[in-house]
## 1
Amino acid sequence: MPVLNNVQAVNYALMQEMERDPSVVVFGEDAGYEGGVFRATVDLQEKFGVERCFDTPISESGIVGAAVGMAINGLKPVVELQFCGFTYPAFNQIISHVSRMRNRSRGRFTLPMVIRFPSGGGIRALEHHSESPEVLFAHIPGLKIVMPSTPYDTKGLLTAAIRDPDPVIFMEPKRIYRAFKQEVPEEDYVIEIGKANVVKEGEDLTIVTWGAMVKDTLKAVEEANKKGIFPEVIDLRTIAPLDREAIIQSVKKTGRILVVQEAVKSFGVASEIIALVNEKAFLHLEAPPARVAAPDIIVPLPRGEQYYMPNPDMIYEKILEVVNFLT
Amino acid sequence: MLVDQYSPFEGKMLQILDKDGNVLDESLVPQIPDEDLVKLMKTMLYTRTADRKALMYQRQGRMLTYAPNEGQEACQVGSAYALAKKDWMAPAFRELGAWLQRGVDLKTIFLYWYGNEMGSKVADDIRILPVSIPISSQCLHAVGLAMAARKRGLDEVSIAYFGDGGTSEGDFHEALNLAGVYKAATVFFCQNNQWSISVPKHFQTASETFAQKAYAYGFKGIKVDGNDILAVYVATKEAVERGRKGEGPTLIEGYTYRLGPHTTSDDPTRYREEQEVDEWREKDPIKRFRIYLERRGLWSDEMEKQFVQEADEEVERAFKEVEQSGNTQFDDIFKYQYEKMTPLLEEQYAEYKAFFQERGML
Ligand SMILES: Cc1ncc(C[n+]2csc(CCOP(=O)(O)OP(=O)(O)O)c2C)c(N)n1
Ligand SMILES: [Mg+2]
């Protein structure tokens, strides 16, 4: 079984889907000949030719807008936008068309397409390379938003995204692109979009997180375990549609909820999850719902980033606070 | 007018000095005082020294991601020299020479690449906008700067810098269109360095030149040898003067080459031939200007040696200062979000401050 890191798993999934389905095309800035600035599309052009994997001009609105036309006309575009912060020039296409075509045409035109890009901070990069914009996409009806946290999940989720009949925003936490390796089965498998994963069972507290924060959360949980505290950790895998069942079920069991997100605190995915818990499991709560997130400021350049990124220590503190509420 | 004589549709490129420093057309040589010629040389050399050292600091793990300028010094220094102090500059991220030519302290520039926003706070009397990372977005700001000047009765001109790849973004086209419609006094300076990371320029456009794109927006464009500082200067000077007289925008394509990697994260051997780089090294902008100045008796090996040594020491001093005091102050990441911190930010600021203080991180 191949042992791959996260970015290799992206490449592996793309490779297999391109092999399986000739309508899959992959393109983006530097995504063709060079194989992407993170090497996610490496070897694809060589293997499948320039008609199926190609470079584009620097034109995010163009990339996404053209993908809409291609998806309508029989292809399955999987486009790469170079960084999270460079999705913004494509927002007009994403909001005005990608998310709406099915509804607008009452099902006549559908968009089986994937927009994938590296997301999140913590790599000491220039401005606009460190953003966590998942909620900007999640707030748009008609989109699905996926963010894997392991190589195994990456392959299963990306495969599912490519096969999905609707547009999927596939966010790749770049901080953990090469952080660790894992066995990734060669055989065909998909991980269902919309289903969360309980990565650690526990009874004292439910922690919901996703992407690169899963690793940091598990680190904090390890510390908590030493104090005899056993949180349950849910990796969302899919941000929209949210796996409401998994969250509610767990909170009913633990009576406590903490959401860990890398993005800024206000108006975020965490806010949505906590609203959901309040609506559906209010009477089960033994402590106020809590969040660990970045402060509501613009991502600092690297010399200030350490003050911004949520870290295991903050998560650990919050775990204690929630568990010790009123005791 | 040069823009008329050098039509991009006729395959013309304005060039005054050839790659060996020979003057191709005496009538085109601009009237630049000797003292300034020497200063231009020094600024190009200083740019190169700072650039190479920045690259070295990055390799040593002392600097963060850096975008090198080597090979593009004439484009940057020559065009900025054509601006008046009152004129505005909207840079992309590869214009070190232009920043230095306009008098920005190297320490400030290094501070930015060191990863501290204070490096984007340029002295009040220098009209440069901060580095703009989203490709070509700054082109529109340049148009607005010029439009505002006109509406306020001022004769300020603006210049926007961007790359060959930058011409593929919608913002670039919207900026040219707006500038054409409003006859904005904007100089669009395209540093065509042949590459956009790994993508060669013919994948960016099917146009023969970048300069010709201006015509679709109702104004003129000119292609110049971007490694010839005299050509860059005269073309920019003419564009600035026309803008100042109310004759609208100009697009200048500086035909040049990025000799180094795209950034320190890039490995150009993956996508381009060493031979291509060698050919362009022959066309080095500093080399030809050196010969030109030597022939005019304004420059010598001795002068160069001495200047480069001084520059080296000065750059080292600037960087060491940045290393010593360049860390971001905790307060600053909260302080500049709004004129006044909102109550929510006040609360978060206090909470975070306490967290980091408890851990001895502040
Ligand atoms: C909107 C946007 N998309 C993508 C990028 C990533 N990116 C940074 S530089 C670059 C290539 C730029 O090429 P060019 O405009 O020719 O300028 P050069 O780097 O050659 O100076 C790309 C694609 C970006 N900074 N902004
Ligand atoms: Mg370029």
## 2
Amino acid sequence: MRLTDLQSATQVEAERIMTICNACRYCEGHCAVFPAMEKRLAFEQADVEYLANLCHNCGSCYHHCQYADPHEFQVNVPQTFSDLRQQTYATYAFPRFMGKAFENNGMWATIITVLSFFSLFWFFGGSSFAGAAFYDIIPHSLMANTFGAVGVVALLALVAGIVRYWRALSLPSPLKLHWGHIITGIKQGVTLKYLDGGSGDGCTYPNEAPSHARRIYHQLTFFGFMLCFAATSVGTVYHYGFNWIAPYAFLTLPKILGISGGIGLIIGPIGLLWLKYIADDAPKATANKGMDAAFLILLLMTSITGLVLMLAKGSILLGPILIIHLSFVLALFITLPYGKFVHGFYRLVALIKYAYENEESSNN
Amino acid sequence: MVGGGHAGLTAAICAAELGASVCILEGAPRTHRAGNSRHTRNLRPMHKGPTFVLQDTYTEDEYFDDLMRVTDGITNEHLARMTIRESAESVQWLHDHGVRFQPPLGGTLHLGRTNAFFLGGGKAVMNALYREAELLGIEVHYDAEVIDLEFEVDTFKNATVKYEPENKVIAAATLVAASGGFESNIEWLKEAWGAVAENFLIRGTPYNMGGMIKLLHKNAAQQIGDPKQCHAVAIDGRAPKFDGGIVTRVDCVSLGIVVNDQAHRFYDEGEDFWPKRYAIWGRLVAAQNNQVGHVIIDQKSKGAFMPPVFPPIVADTIGALAHKIGIDEEQLIKTIEDFNRSVVPGNFDHTELDGCHTDGLEIAKTNWARTIDQPPYSAYSLKPGITFTYLGVGVTDKAQVLMENGAMYKNVFAAGEIMAGNVLGKGYLAGIGMTIGGVFGRKAGKEAAKNALN
Ligand SMILES: Cc1cc2nc3c(=O)[nH]c(=O)nc-3n(C[C@H](O)[C@H](O)[C@H](O)COP(=O)(O)OP(=O)(O)OC[C@H]3O[C@@H](n4cnc5c(N)ncnc54)[C@H](O)[C@@H]3O)c2cc1C
Ligand code: SF4
Ligand code: SF4
């Protein structure tokens, strides 16, 4: 008879492994997972889903585990937690069937999304391909409306998913939460504190020797994304606030932000994909269903096509490139709530919970 | 270098740094390299003043007193004091070779003053040392068990390595023996302990068969230590036969009572803090019928100790519990009734020697005695778990191996468990295993290099 309420084989495996780790605790200095684990005696669904999302898959606790394969205990925390994270994204996604589709076929779902947008654009805008200015090809209103609509839907879905996860972790409402916890969580998330291996030497990724490679490429990707996002936001303000119409000159804010972000968003994902390719298989998810790679490729294609678009200004290829770019961007938008993108938010919620929990226990 | 554990790697790195060409023969496969060292958690260095991993001060004299207490004086004072003094270098040496430690407050057993905890445990330490060895160009051979040694009077000539289809003979200018104790060798344990050793569980590697100890003794090395002396703790009886490691310990002995297969208590469970008494219970349990002891606690103690890896046997009555663990129901009920009746009420506090004791029992419980009367009741069945043995070879303060006649071999050194008995005649101090391995590993490596390069 199970006393706990675990739903899946992966959750049961996580409970089994956490019971072993909790008796061992050798890894307590590596990351937040182990101190959080030590506060618990039993591991219910909410506990394992919380711990799994605190894990950054740095690999240290696998390479340093005396109970890893071929030991009969078969402890592999990063692998089990990777599998479990993919499951949590699907469990809390809104609507749920979309989450499931991406959990099981991340790559295909993404490809199909890109292709369908491409066909749509082709169908509606194909006639005006020869035009040379952006909004000759696709009228600005159409572009803005489409993006606005897709963006709002994606944002709502994203928020719905995060709210569900937030509730599952029994965190108090954000309004009742101490700002300090949120700031601590954000700080630990943004600095990727738990990719430092606990010693500052870096994590054991892509192999057993500590390295900062993962952290560096991830930061390039993250800040690249944020800069591109900033570029778009500034562009929107220019358009609506000042009636300054794109394309902008090289030395304008949207361009500077966009180009530097775009470069980060090219080097970062390439680095991460490369690391993933050469990394040890053992600590990776058992079933790599392509969710991670699909997201990285989507980011990469968005930034590459974005930069190419800029270079293609005035050429007859502008039209096709623009719709390719827009297809990727739209696909990125719509898959945000279901793809790997959400990992940042789940991790953030888990880190906020960690800060909150630490405070609670030091008050008791 | 024979043996690729902490002692062997330390010696190899030190020798290579002095310019010697070094080859490590490790009997285990790559996945099981680093014997018992990969199961460790900390070491015990002497230190004056706080360091980046330790609090306060731990002086040579205090350290030596601690050692005298646990060994009842069965130690070589000269070697012991040398080890203690040199241990002050251990943390820095390891840090310089890529090993990382936890900050001082992280320790789970409140040993922040005396023990430095490895970040990620012993396997992280050993991975770092193996990486260092690789950088230094040290040759490492796995699955390379040494099965014979050839000597010419007091000089080592060559070693035979087990190899398919044909064994290999490797000649070298010097030999460093760092191949651990003989704890994995059940037959040998039976010679020392009798048939009861069949029921022992081995907490660490299955590869420390003691072959090198036998070979050295056969070639006139001085024998040190008693074959029955070892670090033995009481662990969960469901642990694997080998390599169960740290997680199989059961930390609730001092919270409850322990009975044997006849349902009688046999020792004061509250004699001292558990970490200090941990290492005597292996022997106590080994002396009982079937080498089994059963810890029994009630609901009051639940969650008050480090969670064990296996779930307890649980029942709502003492009788049902006895039935489930297969001991006499009437007798267990009687033992617990007697115990409960003699508990003197007091202020229970598990963080100090609270003096809560029993009165009028043949075997008293002198601290943390509380009645066992709140169901559900939990039981864990214990067996002796052998950590490592102390029988080995005599050495000098330069890690040079001594011969029966008191002379030294010209070119043979030893480090780690294989010579731990020089310092540790009996008993145990947490963290001293790695300390001895580190100090003698550094000595052996440096002396062996000098010897080989001359
Ligand atoms: C579960 C557990 C926890 C422990 N925790 C601690 C702790 O926290 N702190 C502490 O100080 N000590 C601890 N110890 C004790 C510590 O492990 C030892 O004292 C120390 O590791 C000894 O190092 P070593 O290099 O001598 O032996 P080992 O690390 O055991 O290495 C010996 C090596 O020799 C190889 N070998 C054996 N025979 C041959 C042969 N014939 N040919 C070739 N190779 C051979 C073996 O495969 C093995 O890899 C612990 C022990 C165990 C079992
Ligand atoms: S991963 Fe392995 S070494 Fe680390 S805490 Fe868990 S069981 Fe212990
Ligand atoms: S893989 Fe890294 S981040 Fe994840 S639990 Fe292990 S040590 Fe922590």
## 3
Amino acid sequence: MASRKSQPNRDNGDKYSILLPTYNERENLPLIVWLLVKYFGESGYNYEIIVIDDGSPDGTLEVAEQLQKIYGEDKILLRPRAKKLGLGTAYIHGMKHATGNFIIIMDADLSHHPKFIPEFIEKQKEGNYDLVSGTRYQGNGGVYGWDLRRKLISRGANFLTQVLLRPGASDLTGSFRLYKKKVLESLMERCVSKGYVFQMEMIVRARQLNYTIGEVPISFVDRVYGESKLGGNEIVSFVKGLLTLFATT
Amino acid sequence: MTSVTRTSQLRGANAELSGLAAPGRVALSATPPASAMTKLLQWLLGVSLLGAVWALVTFDLLGLSLPRTYREVAWPMPVYLLVSFGCYSLATVGYRVAIFNDCDEAAKELQEQIKEAKEDLRKKGLKM
Ligand SMILES: Nc1nc2c(ncn2[C@@H]2O[C@H](COP(=O)(O)OP(=O)(O)OP(=O)(O)O)[C@@H](O)[C@H]2O)c(=O)[nH]1
Ligand SMILES: [Mg+2]
């Protein structure tokens, strides 16, 4: 069991459901879960981890089952699906089973470090924000393992997006965020894009709906294990998505 | 653990900035504030307004018989604007690339935690 130290027991009714979509994350999943348990244990917030595995051929689900035995069925919930149906629907699927009033979305590949979650939560409380977004582009935020080319593309794409959409948040394509559950539900209903653009649309729609957005600088460390699933035509589909949002929102 | 973190608050400040689609704050539960205009339309409106003013001055469409210098200044204005916007963009992106943080510390910390986690998980009986 996670060591329960003499930490403040913040029993104020708030509960945080972490959605972890996984596809071939056998090596990363135990590590991310361990880190989540560690930081939630230390900060004392009430939480649950929902693993949405899309039939990973590498046996991610078996690992998840072992983790469930170790950490308990109240902490680790498994909501697998038979085949790879994409990230967007994975979030919707996971959200349906979430019992928390807040939802945290993050990648399971260790590029998003759980140590920032307590900061997200504090930020949320500070301004009663509807959503808190991690940002690589401000303050102490940053990246690890990116070469100049990737930095240039990232900054360029971000600049273009800021100019065209004026979205009111600095990191649009990041997917490390905390939402009020109701807010996430209403956003999910409206968002239709895929891939990176999906994250962007979430923020843009949030602004449209006058939801308030807080930001917390995060460090983004490129995945150590496993393969990147987003292929070469990334940029093309990004630009397409950007223009679509430009014309429709 | 982490050093002091600067956080920022962004409360749709841009809506006011644009002045075009500032529907005011609407109750959260309400349906979308029928956001009057898409960003595309906002841009088109902005550009055509500017273009109209430019044409009025440059070609003296209203017959105001403006001083010649006005026209001479106005005529190449679109090119100046474009070029300066281009320069601004390049400078901004370049600067931001240059100051993009490399989180070496974070990567190191993660590596150590991975080791620790693996050991602990093995003790807890996880078979990888
Ligand atoms: N359930 C589910 N999870 C997915 C699917 N595609 C990706 N994921 C997970 O979503 C998260 C983000 O996907 P990544 O492949 O890391 O995408 P990325 O971060 O844009 O790209 P890289 O980190 O460079 O690989 C990871 O935890 C993946 O395991 C999917 O179709 N279904
Ligand atoms: Mg990733």
